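Hey, weird one. I pasted the Heterokaryon incompatibility domain-containing protein sequence into the form twice and got a warning about non-standard characters only the second time. First submission, copied straight from the form history:
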Amino acid sequence: MSIPATIRDAMMVCTKMAIRYLWVDRLCIVQDQGYEKGIQINAMGTIYSNSYITLVGLEGSDVSYGLPGVFKEERPCRRVLRVQDIVLTELYPHHRYRRLVERSAWDSRGWTYQEALLSKRLLLFSHSGLFYECFTGCDLSGEPFPQLIVPRWPLFNKDIGPAESRNEWDPSKFFSNLIHRYTKRVFSYESDILRAISGILNSTYGHEHYFGHPFPIFDNVILWKAEAAVHQERIPASGAVFPSWSWASVNSPIITNSTPVQGIAVWATASSDSDFRLQPLKIVSPC
């Protein structure tokens, strides 16, 4: 079996960068064993956040297209001017770079959302050039001079998740922005809607979430609505069913309540301490 062009090119990039291991979802995730596949999908947050760099192809619509520039390819030259010891060069306008990314198939797919948010570094290949996003503020674009690309995801910090410190972070606002962007994306299989975001939810809210609703803000995020006035129910071909109270049940961009709400009741259980202090009730998934 021949190796698809994009995977072949990615192998070449890793060789040139002296990177020993390459993770390719379609090859590394066991596709025909449901239990193993579930474990690996739930670990994608850890895989992306601990990877050295993520390679992104901005051209083409499938794995057969390749990564532009890995092998010989003509590209527009930048104008360079030398004034004594100073080198001046024309940089690729940031707004054009954003449009380049936004028109790509990569930026529209549901599965690529978490790799964009969780990866420490992105190396993006296009016919216009090679671009590098680093979420630590560094830059490694060498065609032919470094060009800083401001990360497109200001809400996310690669070490702790949300950009703000835990004391200042608003989990409801973050979730609202996250889900609204995510539900605009497309899926080859509608049943993947929850799997493809599990890595972000695990990394940000912990493993306690149910049908896409994090337990710490469950009462707030369940107050969602479909952005589209006319929308369809999400019905996966696999026969999977999403409960009607979950945002995953609707095939539409989703708007959630980003303002914290105060419940009319406080759930608690009596502790075994002698002073009978009340302890918060832990939400348990139904069997």
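That's the output from the first submission. The warning seems to come from a hidden character in my clipboard, not from the data itself. The longest helix spans residues 5-16.
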